[in-house]
Amino acid sequence: MLYREGGQFKTSYGDDQAIFPIAQDRWIMTALVLAAFLAIPCFATQYVYTEVLIPVLILSIAAIGLNILTGYCGQVSLGTGGFMAVAAYASYNIWLRVPLFNDLIIVVLFGGVMAAIFGMLFGLPSLRIKGFYLAVATLAAQFFVDWATARIKWLTNYAPSGSVNVANLKALGIPINTPETRYLFILAVTVVLALAAKNLVRGRIGRQWTAIRDMDIAAEIMGVRPVNAKLSAFAVSSFCIGVSGSLFAFLRLGAWEPQAFSIDRSFQVLFMIIIGGLGSILGSFLGAIFIVLMPIFLNQLPTWLGIHLSTATIAHIEAMVFGSMIVLVLLLEPNGLARLWQIIKEKLRLWPLPY
Amino acid sequence: MGIVAPMLDNVMKLSVVSLLLGFVGWVVAIAVLNGPGPVLETLIGGLLVGVLYSLIALGVVLIFKASGIFNYAQGSMVLFAALSVARLSESMPLWGAVLLSAAIMVSMAYAVEFLVLRRLVHQEQIILFMATIGITYFLDGFGQMLWGSDIYQIDLGLPKQPILLLKDVFRGGLLIDPADLIAAVVCGLLVIALALFFQYTRVGRALRAVADDHQAAQSVGIPLNRIWLLVWAVGGLVALVAGVIWGNKLGVQFSLSLIALKALPVLILGGFTSIPGAIAGGLIIGAGEKLAEVVIGPILVRTFDLAGGGFENWFAYVLALLFLLIRPQGLFGEKIIERI
């Protein structure tokens, strides 16, 4: 009754190709974005900002990036954490060493570009290696970066413990130091990148990626150049992942060690896109929300139930439940939460009078 | 643009070959300059560690061959098996603990097959892969909750005194840990046993048939579920052997499941589908990373002012990546033929 496209006629090509062809979708999205910008800052507490909203948004960007590579272009990557680290340390060094570029926007962009270059370098093997062979090969990037950030002293500015920190961040002259300003800055970046990604994947280049994913040899015969398609996917994906890495380091952590971008981070982002839905921008957000919120929920659950357990036991139970949840989601809906949302939409169109 | 791809290809191949040759040349040069003793000792130590990597990789290959599932949980299975042997042997003789752990591993294989894999037939490979990562988390948590998360010992009662070999041939001789040698022998026996099992028994033939083509095997009456159960059970037992040997060498602790990550480059180097590949890959990776750490590491650390070595952490992956650029299917993998 409320959610249907009846009576909404498409009278131009523009209407036909809109991101949200149904008016209700447009209203919901507008309302969501407005609420995120205006309503949430009115009542969110610091805990909600730093533990929920900021990680969800930052990791959504990483998930979008990985989804472009894995979900749209079909190249499985386990090196997400490494690409994030490249950007984080690139940003740190330009922030530290070039006072001229002290602006957060430039710093984050620089991190993204460096990650994109690094990603293209490690994307070169994808021209020859496919499938799981490639997935394990991307681990080379992960472990190499892990090692480089821990051992090359110049990268961490000779900090004795290997831990680096940043302070007094500014964007366009506005100080970004409260949770609220951080959140708003990240939100703005997320909206811009999500919109850009959505448009990329439905454009010419996105269709090339999808063709390569579905069958690379057939795509090549039809005139899609694998070099262009694969390397551009690696570049765009690594850029997004890099931006999220810089944001994660600068605005979520503030002070970090190489451990922050270990292989666990790679798996975390991979879980997000599998659970959210491969090949879906919306899925990247849903997956990020799920993966960020679940450990918080699991952590709090014993307290709510009034059970007292040791921290080690909680950590072990958390790992067990986390593992089973992942298996469970895969068993129930292998196409992810985005597919679930699609099914709900199909049902809603007929509600309340299904025929 | 048209000629860029083949050009890139050739440039890549050439640079990879020269890199690998350069590495070997460097090692040989250092062996000639400083005497062969230290280099040989490192080489043998690396080969013996490589045997252990092979053991872990072997379990993954078995499962991948028969079900097309890339079992990321193999490392956690190794940890789980080692933990259970270590804790059980505190209250019973070692052989009892090993037998009981074997039973646990088989029942775990049954649980995995029945609860997870049976329901994911015909899903894409990446979904199955993700499911095994889920199993990894579960097993890590479950194992440590059940058996505790401290460091435990498995004492096989092997001789601890290093053996000195070839004392007369060159200065210093070679120091070798006998436990490592025994591990190598056990590994060799295991591989021979598995090869015979695959080649000559009825079940082995069925396994090979399933590996070749699931549907064809099913259509001639091979029960797919039972074969999968069997292969996961064998994978579990191989994990048990690996866990006991690693545990004897290093003690049983959580980092054991991280060492198992080293099995991944071994796998891609040898080829996912080849048992000899897992062995050869393990030996190459083990020897290569130890040589890199000991022979080349100090020089790089001095030249570039690094905070310590630790080349072992990534060298294996880069080595495997370089090999793959020349042979995309791994050393012994089946040739990849693609059709439209």
Structural summary, described in words:
- The complex is a heterodimer of chains A (355) and B (340).
- Chain A is mainly α.
- Chain A has helices at residues 13-16, 23-43, 46-72, 80-97, 104-123, 131-151, 179-202, 204-214, 216-221, 226-253, 263-276, 281-305, 311-332, 337-350, and strands at 164-165, 170-171, 174-175, 255-256.
- Chain A is globular.
- The mean pLDDT of chain A is 86.
- Chain B contains 13 helices and 2 strands; from the N terminus they run αααααββαααααααα.
- In chain B, helix 2 (36-67) packs across helix 7 and helix 12 packs across helix 13.
- Chain B starts with a helix and ends in a 14-residue tail after the last helix.
- The chains are: A mainly alpha (355), B mainly alpha (340).
- The interface between A and B is large, with 56 and 60 residues.
| CATH 2nd-level architecture of chain A | Orthogonal Bundle
Total discrete domains of chain B: 1
Low-confidence stretches of chain A: none
SSE topology string of chain B: HHHHHEEHHHHHHHH
Major sheet characteristics of chain A: 2 strands, antiparallel
Count of DSSP helices of chain A? 14
> Over the alpha carbons, how many angstroms does the gyration radius of chain A reach?
21 Å
Report the sheet-strand fraction of chain B: under 5%
Order of helices and strands of chain A: HHHHHHEEEHHHHEHHHH
The main pleated sheet of chain B reads as: 2 strands, antiparallel
How much helical structure, as a percent, in the residues of chain B?
Answer: over 70%
What is the 3D form of chain A? Answer: globular
The largest contact between protein chains, plus residue counts on each side, is: A-B, 56 and 60 residues
As a percent range, the share of strand residues of chain A is under 5%
Number of domains of chain A: 1
**Overall spatial form of chain B:** globular
CATH topology name of chain A, in short, is: ABC transporter involved in vitamin B12 uptake, BtuC
